[in-house]
């Protein structure tokens, strides 16, 4: 494992997509490290290569969005490729040491491999700082790299770390900050959080000065051709507001009183940036954008995404339940509360889900990443994009962390109303922070947390965020979990054996 983690992949450009216009240099492959960083174009190639490496089915174009993480969250009724004799048993998805050993290890090693690339980049961005003579390049590049390092470590922590609210002092993961072969100790979850916040705070300070925020730019902008194309389309880069959103995420996760206040503050800063992001407040067949592109704070663009989806059981034309992630009609109705408050919620509409009514059953297929819809009728609608941070989460963080029940409910209702839920079905604060004893799903959580959870499930279907929320709040059960009771062992992916063998981290 360590041989994989600590060896820098030579920067290999994987091809450009329609959303990658900020790259204005030709792709290069197999460039020696020293020579790579002798020019601005070499730095640009290296940073762009890091972003492109995120867009694989092992990471954010598959397992960490619509595939494995959402299987863990119980969103599907089947797992194509794991349905022995056409029978799928949900509990197998937590078999981290056998059935899903190779998948888990691949996620771990691939993410640390990218972190190695980031650490090498950060070493050279300071060593060869004098090469970066174009205005904004040094601060923007270093800020992005630090933000990406924090982003990746945070997701590793949320997968491989303990349930933080229960065991913040328990061992979690290494935090790699240098490009070398030295063993790195496995830190406690609390220590990892401190390291993440350090990177994010430094990134914020750099990007405050350097981030070209006015370059959240559509190609139809009259000034587009005059701008530096490496700095445009900031929604596909770890921009200043993406870093602020990450700070909101991490402080919310940390969860103490001071951190909840900081999480609320940072989330509100992002919400206030309405010049760059805005909530969709209606959806019709003529303007539907299933990934809500205008809400994207940070995401990636994936080369030939349509073909990748076909190869990974998300073919938008396929309705074969043995060859596709799907959920049955009963689950769909429960998740979207179709018989109750979800009756007018457009997140369940046909542009988002395809419902197949059969003679004996109803099956539902997610169409969130349907590239035909994202290309139809207007420019730059999010084709080939995978959103990794979107605006509604900032409202949910306010809802979770605000000390006032009314402020919390207001934030939650803002998103619900924008999604078409009736004003008459607003969430009220009666018993808001009491145990939700009327819940048929989980009576061990407060009404506040259960209502936020239900919103994550509706809003972030196929985006991989629900499992993190369930784990953070140590849900003992949830619809679709397939177990009588969840334990910390189910929530915490096991570290690869080689992490201990090669890293001397067993003590």
Describe the structure.
With 507 residues, the protein is mainly alpha-helical. The chain has 18 helices and 5 strands. The chain has a 3-stranded antiparallel β-sheet. A two-stranded antiparallel sheet has the order 1-5. The longest helix has 27 residues, at 101-127. The protein is globular, with a radius of gyration of 22 Å. The model is unreliable at 1-31 and 501-507 (pLDDT under 50). Keywords: Cell outer membrane, Membrane, Signal. It is found in: Cell outer membrane. Its main location: membrane. Belongs to the SusD family. This is RagB/SusD family nutrient uptake outer membrane protein.
* SS class: mainly alpha
Q: Could you give the order of the helices and strands?
A: HHHHHHHHHEHEHEEHEHHHHHH
Helical stretch count?
Answer: 18
Residue share in β-strands: under 5%
List keywords for this structure.
single chain, 507 residues, three-stranded antiparallel sheet, two-stranded antiparallel ribbon, globular, disordered N terminus, membrane, SusD_RagB_dom, TPR-like_helical_dom_sf, signal, cell outer membrane
């Amino acid at each position: 494992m360590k041989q994989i983690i600590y060896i820098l992949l030579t920067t290999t450009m994987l091809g450009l997509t329609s959303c990658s216009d900020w790259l204005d240099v030709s792709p290069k492959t197999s460039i020696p490290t020293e020579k790579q960083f002798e020019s601005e174009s070499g730095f640009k190639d290296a940073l762009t290569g890091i972003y492109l490496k995120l867009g694989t089915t092992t990471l954010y174009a598959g397992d960490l969005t619509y595939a494995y993480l959402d299987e863990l969250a119980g969103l599907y009724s089947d797992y194509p490729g794991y349905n022995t004799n056409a029978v799928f048993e949900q509990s197998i998805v937590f078999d981290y040491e056998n059935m899903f050993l190779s998948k888990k290890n691949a996620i771990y090693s691939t993410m640390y491999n990218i972190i190695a690339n980031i650490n090498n980049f950060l070493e050279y961005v300071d060593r060869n700082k004098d090469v970066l003579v174009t205005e904004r390049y040094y601060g923007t590049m270093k800020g992005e790299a630090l933000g990406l390092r924090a982003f990746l470590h945070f997701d590793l922590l949320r997968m491989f770390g303990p349930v933080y609210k229960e065991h913040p002092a328990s061992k979690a993961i290494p935090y790699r900050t240098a490009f070398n072969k030295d063993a790195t100790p496995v830190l406690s979850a609390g220590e990892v959080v401190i390291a993440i916040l350090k990177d994010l705070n430094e990134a914020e300070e750099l990007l405050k000065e350097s981030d070209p925020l006015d370059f959240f730019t559509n190609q139809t902008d009259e000034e587009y051709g005059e701008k530096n194309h490496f700095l445009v389309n900031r929604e596909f880069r770890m921009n200043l507001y993406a870093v602020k959103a990450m700070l909101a995420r991490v402080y919310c996760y940390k969860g103490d009183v001071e951190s909840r206040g900081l999480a609320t503050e940072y989330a509100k800063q992002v919400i206030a940036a309405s010049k760059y992001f805005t909530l969709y407040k209606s959806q019709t067949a003529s303007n539907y954008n299933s990934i809500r592109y205008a809400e994207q704070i940070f995401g990636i663009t994936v080369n030939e995404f349509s073909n990748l989806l076909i190869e990974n059981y998300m073919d938008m034309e396929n309705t074969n339940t043995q060859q596709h992630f799907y959920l049955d009609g009963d689950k769909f109705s429960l998740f979207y509360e179709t018989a109750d408050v979800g009756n007018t919620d457009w997140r369940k509409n046909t542009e988002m889900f395809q419902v197949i009514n059969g003679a004996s059953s109803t099956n539902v297929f997610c169409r969130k990443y349907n590239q035909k819809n994202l290309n139809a009728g207007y420019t730059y609608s999010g084709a080939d994009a995978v959103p990794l941070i979107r605006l509604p989460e900032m409202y949910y963080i306010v809802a979770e962390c605000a000390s006032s029940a009314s402020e919390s409910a207001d934030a939650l209702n803002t998103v619900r109303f924008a999604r078409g839920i009736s004003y008459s079905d607003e969430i009220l604060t009666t018993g808001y922070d009491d145990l939700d004893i009327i819940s048929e799903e989980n009576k061990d959580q407060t009404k506040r947390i259960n209502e936020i959870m239900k919103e994550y499930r509706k809003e972030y279907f196929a985006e991989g965020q629900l499992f993190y929320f369930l784990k953070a709040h140590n849900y003992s059960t949830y619809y679709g979990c397939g177990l009588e009771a969840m334990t910390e062992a189910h929530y915490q992916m096991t570290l690869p054996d080689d992490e201990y063998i090669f890293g001397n981290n067993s003590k």
